[in-house]
Amino acid sequence: MKIVTPSSTLREWRMQDASSLVKHGNNVNVAATLRDAFPSPYTPEDARRFIAMATGPTPDLFLAIDIGGEAVGGVGIHVLNDVKHRTAEIGYWLAEPFWGRGIATDAVRALVPVEFGRYDINRLQAGIFSTNPASMRVLEKCGFSREAVHKDAIFKNGVFLDEVLYVRFR
Ligand SMILES: CC(C)(COP(=O)(O)OP(=O)(O)OC[C@H]1O[C@@H](n2cnc3c(N)ncnc32)[C@H](O)[C@@H]1OP(=O)(O)O)[C@@H](O)C(=O)NCCC(=O)NCCS
């Protein structure tokens, strides 16, 4: 899969991306607003394990944000299970030097119709840490609505944070 956005190309991960994944992912400022599944520190072994998983058999979708041939971030889709199987979560991150240029917004905006086309989902959601106004803004710019605040639902780096749920319906 390859999706061209105004500022990047979203494409499948390759094992050769491991070094750029470590270079950009090994950043506490990136990890601070992501789930603990995103390693910090981010080692070469973590990168290889992630790319093997992302390119192996998985119902989820993982794409690299590619600028100039370099993977500088990632976007992912995870469909929930059981009675929530018509709901998917979207996640994304971008290397810090590239923040503030609309790149994540372009990526999410381009991915939303692809997700609704690829999966039999009714709602697409993201749980944003209360400390992450930039990500809330990305979702607002992409037509998501602030649906709920889950008090103290996140425990990250030793601190409780609220989770702000954003949703976009089909
Ligand atoms: C969140 C993240 C993906 C944003 O990427 P980005 O490419 O810089 O985002 P964009 O440039 O598309 O848009 C950011 C918006 O937030 C705004 N913003 C940035 N910092 C802000 C702040 N502290 N308060 C309010 N708005 C802020 C920007 O002004 C911009 O909005 P605008 O276009 O209306 O001016 C990036 O910061 C990141 O990877 N962070 C670490 C990982 C992460 O948090 N991922 C999301 C988890 S759900």
Topology:
Layout: E1 2-4, E2 9-12, H1 18-25, H2 28-31, H3 44-55, E3 61-67, E4 70-79, E5 87-94, H4 103-118, E6 123-129, H5 133-141, E7 145-156, E8 159-169
Parallel strand pairs: 5-6
Antiparallel strand pairs: 1-2, 2-3, 3-4, 4-5, 6-8, 7-8
Task: Give structural notes.
The mean pLDDT is 97. 29% of the residues lie in helices and 36% in strands. By secondary structure, the protein is an alpha+beta fold. It is globular. Strand 4 and strand 5 form a beta hairpin. It has helices at residues 18-25, 28-31, 44-55, 103-118, 133-141; strands at residues 2-4, 9-12, 61-67, 70-79, 87-94, 123-129, 145-156, 159-169. It is built from five helices and eight strands, in the order ββαααβββαβαββ. The protein has an eight-stranded mixed sheet with strand order 1-2-3-4-5-6-8-7, sandwiched between helices. The chain has one domain (2-124): 3-Layer(aba) Sandwich (Aminopeptidase), CATH 3.40.630.30. Bound molecules: coenzyme A (COA). Coenzyme A binds at residues 30, 33-34, 91-94, 99-105, 126, 128, 132-135, 137-138.
Ligand species: coenzyme A
CATH architecture: 3-Layer(aba) Sandwich
As a whole number of angstroms, the C-alpha radius of gyration is: 15 Å
Helix content: 25-40%
CATH homology superfamily: Gcn5-related N-acetyltransferase (GNAT)
User: How many helix segments?
Assistant: 5
What is the top-level CATH class?
Alpha Beta
The largest pleated sheet is described as:
8 strands, mixed
Which class do the helix and strand fractions yield?
Answer: alpha+beta
Helix and strand run:
EEHHHEEEHEHEE
| Unreliable runs | none
Give the beta-strand count: 8
Mean pLDDT across the residues is 97
- Tell me, briefly, the overall form: globular
Strand content: 35-45%
Neighbour order of strands in the largest sheet: 1-2-3-4-5-6-8-7
Oligomer: single chain
Number of domains: 1
CATH topology: Aminopeptidase
Terminal Cα span: 21 Å
